[in-house]
UniProtKB/TrEMBL annotation:
<keyword id="KW-0143">Chaperone</keyword>
<keyword id="KW-0963">Cytoplasm</keyword>
<protein>
    <recommendedName>
        <fullName>Copper chaperone CopZ</fullName>
    </recommendedName>
</protein>
<dbReference type="InterPro" id="IPR049740">
    <property type="entry name" value="CopZ"/>
</dbReference>
<dbReference type="GO" id="GO:0005737">
    <property type="term" value="C:cytoplasm"/>
</dbReference>
<dbReference type="InterPro" id="IPR017969">
    <property type="entry name" value="Heavy-metal-associated_CS"/>
</dbReference>
<keyword id="KW-0186">Copper</keyword>
<dbReference type="GO" id="GO:0005507">
    <property type="term" value="F:copper ion binding"/>
</dbReference>
<dbReference type="InterPro" id="IPR006122">
    <property type="entry name" value="HMA_Cu_ion-bd"/>
</dbReference>
<dbReference type="InterPro" id="IPR006121">
    <property type="entry name" value="HMA_dom"/>
</dbReference>
<dbReference type="InterPro" id="IPR036163">
    <property type="entry name" value="HMA_dom_sf"/>
</dbReference>
<dbReference type="Pfam" id="PF00403">
    <property type="entry name" value="HMA"/>
</dbReference>
<feature type="domain" description="HMA">
    <location>
        <begin position="9"/>
        <end position="74"/>
    </location>
</feature>
<keyword id="KW-0479">Metal-binding</keyword>
<dbReference type="InterPro" id="IPR001802">
    <property type="entry name" value="MerP/CopZ"/>
</dbReference>
Amino acid sequence: MGLFGPKGETIVINVKGMTCNHCKVSVENALKKLNGVLKAVVDLDKGNVTVTYDPAKVSVDDMKKAIIDTGYEV
């Protein structure tokens, strides 16, 4: 489930436990630190993060692990 093009692939990951702007920033920063993540945008109302990434450099499992390591559930 994603778009593939010159700007990478996009996936939406549901994240449990995010309630505030600090949560939003924590998750976005954890993902942006990963090599291959081009963009990460959290939607607190929907409880998810939309990530644009290069699948040749980073896997969905890597992204989920970064979210879990930050203290949230996927």
